[in-house]
Input
Amino acid sequence: MSFSDIPVDVGPVYEGERIRANQMFVELGGPKVEKHFELVRVKPESEIEDNKVELIGPNLTEMEEGGRYPIGILVEVGGPQLEEDLEAVFERRIHEFCNYINGVMHLNQRYTNWMRISKQAYEKGLNDLKMLGAVLIRLFKAELPIIKKAQVTLYTDPEKIQEPHAMAMKIYEARDERARGLHDEDVDMFYGCVLCQSFAPTHVCCITPDRTSLCGSINWFDARAAAKVDPKGPIFEVPPGKCLNDLAGEYEGINEMVKKRSLGEIERVYLYSGMEYPHTSCGCFEAIDFFIPETGIGHGIIDRNHPGVAINGLPFSAMANTTGGGKQAPGFNGISIQYIVSPKFQQYDGGINVVVWMGKSVKERIYDLLPEDIRDKIPTEEDVNDLGDLIQWLQEHEHPIVNTPEFQAAVGGAEEEEEEEEYEAEGAMLPMGTMAMTVPGVGGVGGFKVILKNCKIHAESIIIKKIEPKRKKK
Ligand code: SF4
Output
């Protein structure tokens, strides 16, 4: 395989390259552009014109430096052994293959794809988007030899992208719907994926029927098909082994696999918890499930399309920094949208019944699939503006969380804190040698205190303590 006609280098060494806003020539797709997608379709070989690349819309030379444009990437592949189940897995490779190109950065997947072309690459001659299509075709055929023919259509025209975008959204939904009928207890094989280790070396995805991969691209059927055609590839079988904790979704086989694939960094995973031994997150998650300490046990969910901040005052980007990187981050868990409607969704933490806030864009997408008795009790940014409003809304709408001791304690705690502030305003002082602060990474929204005791230069002990409410004075 040769890339001698491409003016920049192409190879796995460029995976992980970052292109910052001031280095980019243009941005394609991403959160500031309305319509964008990437899709792979399997077609009969007779319907594919091998190596054809078509561009519908303006090319890079017609774009303004610093501008943002739509991008649709439709890759059609054919081969005697290909089946529809492989489409999603092939599609996920678009991310990897685009990142092989020096001067191209690709993030996310499906309808959240986000690319940047660097100024340096443009100046070197990467000024024709058809080169991107040509690289994709060569890499698809070289790395996945069961693909015999491939053609690529790229869309950058804001009008002409509408129809293929709508088609892509329907196909994603059909894939998700198929996966919703199957549950973890129905199968005797799970799957793992390490495709994102070039970005997050300790991250490994566990893919089960109830837990579609956090990027949303690979469900259990897709993973099964991928492992079948390439058992030694980045998606592989994981025998679940003994179930150690049914509610938490802890499996011996998952723990062993995660320990091995994360090079010993991660030892235990609770598949159905964002709070204890949570599944790691790379950077590709569709949404974030985040803990809201002011509600005791409540959680919020925000997705990439959310404009502005979530109920905890943080935008998606700030929470994504805490969530991603392949570490376990209790209280911040990268998830797929599909997982939210699984009956196993974070069941160890209380499941959907403790979700007390959702961004409007994610709620609208799954509204019909949410349990009827809870969906209208979960507010969005249109219903509540701050945590005070949220508490009031939950009480007024009789959200199930309001009857929990954790919620009652947390709400009581807020009142008590106000009292404490009054004492402090009157000159009360913290004990000498004790310093309290919010834990970095908990989002700056409180809920924990770090107390450094007898601290001179080195702390003798660090106590991380949940703030419990004190009894109200009569
Ligand atoms: S997010 Fe997970 S499933 Fe998706 S490509 Fe990355 S490692 Fe694979």
Summary: The first helix runs from residue 87 to 99. The CA atoms of residues 37 and 111 lie 4 Å apart. The chain has two domains: 12-174, 181-351. The radius of gyration is 24 Å.
